[in-house]
Design brief:
By secondary structure, the protein is an alpha+beta fold. It is 47% helix and 23% strand. A hairpin with a 5-residue loop joins β1 and β2.
Length: 249
């Protein structure tokens, strides 16, 4: 299993174990707000970003009533979120890229800086580490009754770059510009993605000893728990030793 698959599997298991559903719902609700505000419509048929957010909500088992309330609130609320990013390093020089949605930029900057400082990291300038990550479309699907090789052939024309087996899930990767093409192709094939999003995938990974890696992960987890943080990306390698240590936590 590749590094990307291992991280996805570990995060999914830890997420279930830690009962972080409310945090996940909050992130999706913010994404719905941004989608409605920027798209100018609450119709998912004409608002691709909203359609993606609603599909992700479904994959996270967010009820239709909760989704509709989030859409209605976005339509009537004067609340506005801005997208801000941060780049820095953690223990062992791990590269970390943080994406936030915030209604108070000063609060967010202060909070993110504090986490980096307290955890032994260093916050850098925007653009200082972004070259270490490639923007990719990443789709997480359940595909029990299909032949993986046949599916791969069907998806190549939609821009498929890689298929990874993550136990009970498949992770499909495309170039950023093929994100919409893959969404349409999966819909044509009747395949619902549990999640579909543009992610920052590291173009190389950094291997650390288990102790240092765990310290870096504690900072990453602290960032993920911040209310303004939507996504945290890093280039830490998931070694067999680290995977075992995380499973034993």
């Amino acid at each position: 299993m590749s590094g990307h698959s291992k991280w996805s599997t570990i995060k999914r298991k830890k997420g279930a174990a830690d009962a972080k559903r409310s945090k996940i719902f909050s992130r999706i609700a913010k994404e719905i707000t941004i989608a409605v505000k920027e798209g100018g419509t609450s119709d998912p048929e004409t608002n691709p970003r909203l359609r993606t957010a609603m599909n992700n909500a479904k994959g996270a088992n967010m009820s239709k009533d909760v989704v509709q309330r989030a859409i209605s609130k976005a339509e009537s609320s004067s609340e506005n979120y801005s997208e801000v990013t941060f780049e820095g390093t953690g223990q062992g020089g791990v590269a970390i890229f943080v994406e936030c949605l915030t209604d108070n930029n000063q609060r967010t900057v202060s909070s993110i800086r504090s986490i980096f400082n307290k955890r032994g990291g260093a916050l850098g300038k925007n653009g200082s580490l972004s070259f270490l990550f490639d923007r990719k479309g990443v789709f997480n699907i359940i595909c029990k009754d299909r032949d993986i090789e046949e599916l791969e052939l069907e998806l190549i024309d939609a821009g498929l770059e890689d298929v990874e087996d993550a136990e009970d899930h498949l992770i499909l990767t495309t170039a950023m510009e093929d994100f919409g093409n893959m969404q349409k192709k999966l819909e044509e094939l009747g395949i619902e993605a549990e999640s579909s999003e543009l992610q920052r995938v590291p173009n190389a990974r950094r291997e650390l000893d288990v102790s240092t890696a765990q310290k870096a992960l504690r900072m990453i987890e602290a960032l993920e728990e911040d209310d303004d943080v939507q996504n945290v990306y890093h280039d830490l390698e998931m070694t067999d030793e680290l995977e075992k240590a995380l499973q034993e936590e």
